[in-house]
Amino acid sequence: MIINQYNGNYNGRISVPGDKSISHRSIIFGSLAQGETYVENFLMGEDCISTINCFRAMGVDIEQKGTNVSIKGVGLKGLKKPDRVLDAGNSGTTIRILTGLLAFQDFESVLDGDASLRKRPMSRVSDPLNMMGANISCTNGKYPPVTIKPTQGGRGISYVQPTASAQVKSCLLMAGMYCDDVVEVIQPSISRDHTERMMKYFGIDIALEGKTVSIKKSAGFKGKKIFVPGDISSAAFYIVAASIAEGSDIVIENVGLNPTRTGIIDVMRSMGADITIENEKLLNEEPIGDIRVRGSQLKGITINGDIIPRIIDEIPIIALAAVFAEGVTDISDAEELRVKETDRIDAVCNELKKMGALIEAKADGMVIKGSKNLTGSDVKSYADHRMGMMLSLAGSFAEGETRIDDVACINVSNPDFYGILDSLRR
Ligand code: S3P
Description:
It is a single chain. The protein has twelve helices and 25 strands. The chain has helices spanning 20-32, 46-57, 92-102, 123-131, 166-176, 194-202, 232-244, 263-270, 315-323, 344-354, 385-397, 417-423; strands at 2-4, 11-15, 34-40, 61-65, 68-74, 86-87, 109-112, 135-139, 143-149, 157-160, 183-186, 206-209, 212-215, 225-227, 249-256, 274-283, 286-294, 298-299, 302-303, 325-326, 328-331, 358-362, 365-369, 378-379, 401-404. The strands form seven sheets. It has a four-stranded mixed β-sheet. A four-stranded mixed β-sheet has the order 4-5-3-14, covered by helices on one side. α1 packs parallel to α2 (46-57), α1 packs parallel to α6 and α4 runs parallel beside α5. Shikimate-3-phosphate binds at residues 21, 93, 165-167, 170, 191-192, 312-313, 336.
């Protein structure tokens, strides 16, 4: 893909596709409910389609029409043994949450994914699940494919998470619905809580106290209607573009504003961005509202600690904002970026450096000296959707022409990324 410099500003009202995390969970809980679950504004991105296909392979009837999905739930014990390997594609959320769900079924299953997923650690879920009595083996003790042998029942656990991770937390909570004793997860810092909110919405017995989440065995729950808010992680790219480009004024409608996800707003405001929130409401336990962003002069800041899980997917685009800020931005405590769709610390630093950014990698983050200019070059997305979107924007702020090796990966989370961007360039 060739990206040319764009010197104008960004103006207008947009909406972004449905939230990826909530879309996955709507299929998971809809499939396990009794009766129908109807989902509106579902993200038809490749990751969420992988989740749909896994449940179809386990006998769940799921119909798609545009961005609406109807799921004929089979109940907690109604999944059928899949007649093939369950393919999670590029999706860490699918493979990790499904491992917890499948740990205590009475059939064997195998979960696998693409080349990137096969490099992502699964022992972070198989270790605690095996402590609970599951029989799960990973390739080379650590990676997909993952084989789950049937086991009878499951023991409770009080699990202290070594790293904040919503995928691991959600995996254990799914397993907890099938265990006789309480399953408790103690988080080091609070990660996204969409699973907990959706459990509450479906009436599942879940308790929250500070950083501890606990769940009791579930007797089952009924299907419901779910509206998926716009994905703040997709909105983040337009928030940064409009903040950097002088004279911009955009509104992104109906975006999910769950406080465990709004770190991008806090970080951008600390950098001097002009962001206001309008029309706030609560839908299926998830806060939602419109985000207005006007162009402004950004400044460098220090980012570390508890905010990191709240911006974990936004750090690549925050790095680009830092290039166009005055002063130094220093990001630490973000070593988790090394085990995302690619090693996002090295990927961001290598590629932005090729474009002339003053950026240096650290073991747990990066340091960026704002230079406010980039030069078009040949760059690589590492088949990572967020790298593809970040580099596309970097290219449009860079002098000359930028060539990105692969942008098809953007379909993982925002198939309309370029269409939405173009609609703001008037
Ligand atoms: C997700 C959790 C995060 C995030 C991912 C989606 C989820 O991963 O990076 O894009 O839906 O639970 P971790 O739980 O590994 O931090």
